Amino acid sequence: MRKTLTYVFWTVFVVGCLLILGFANKKHNGKTFVDYEIGFSYPGESILIDTANIQEVLSDLIYSLQARKITEVKLREIEDILLYNPYISEAEAWISFQGRLKIMIRQREPILRMIDAKNKSYYMDESGNIFPYQLGYLAHVPVASGNIKPICIPAGKSLIEYDSISDPDLKNLFELARQIDLDDFLNAQIAQIYFNGSNEIELIPKFGKHLIEFGDFENITDKLDKLIIFYKQGMGGKKWKRYKKINLKYKNQVVCTKI
Description:
Layout lengths: L1 H28 L6 E6 L9 H15 L9 H9 L4 E8 L5 E7 L2 E6 L5 E5 L4 E3 L10 E4 L21 H15 L1 H6 E6 L5 E5 L5 E5 L4 H15 L8 E5 L7 E4 L1
Parallel strand pairs: 1-3, 4-7, 7-8, 10-11
Antiparallel strand pairs: 2-3, 4-5, 5-6, 8-9, 9-10, 11-12
């Protein structure tokens, strides 16, 4: 008898919950669009997009939703529109119980600004994607410049769809920029990556007047490790002022030229 009562109780409880949920869902679906709210996730310190940018992108669509039922709001369409923006890496849209459209956006995080041989600027993010440089929004990241060949976008592709990682030169540049970005010391010290007329790399520091001769892209990790050790063990005190060049091109050694 006790088992029967327990079974009846749980059956009634589950059915009751389903009825309540069904009623709440019906009431929710009957609501009209009220307003929207935008949230941002900035992986680093750089801010390249803000609420005003998104409001401009979605203005026509939001206007068309006024007084319409929330069931008519096409969330996937909103996400696709946002993801077309080259500064956005992720976008999620959903409707709250109050009928408010909520949007969460994750901005791409630049780790490098590139200026090619034709003086066109681009950003490269932490995944190696290339996206446009935008006036008025400055990311505090190292700058790569000099003899960098212009980026040729395949027909029918946008800049963000261009597979920069498949380009050997950009792949190597990305790896160098990525390793600098991942090391707090190097990230605070390296201001510029310069490709000279011999197509070799020179690093320009933020502090000190010396030039770092990096050479080609061979042994990127070893060269950066040597530079870190040299800075920490050989550049203390007033030694910053002794050198005009630090050469990392030779295996297992750092060759310096004094002023």
